[in-house]
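so my prof wants the structure for this chain in the tokens format not the other one, which i didnt know existed until like an hour ago. anyway here's the sequence
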Amino acid sequence: MASLLLAACAKGQRRSLPNATVMIHSLQIVRVCDALNELYSKHTGKPIDVIAKNMDRDHFMTPGEAKAFGR
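here's what i got, hopefully its the right format
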């Protein structure tokens, strides 16, 4: 959380104590992303690779496109 809070601060206002450690939880981010992909795959019937491609970046759909994307 500290890395996100620091990133959200205004430039020049990002501070931490000298003995602090700031970590980005990349492995946890991968786990959450994988879990979301599994859930979307389960509920839409789409293969994981299709879900992963669409979840990689913002993917905007019209209501009709969203309906067609789901089951």
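also thought this was worth mentioning. The first helix runs from residue 2 to 8.
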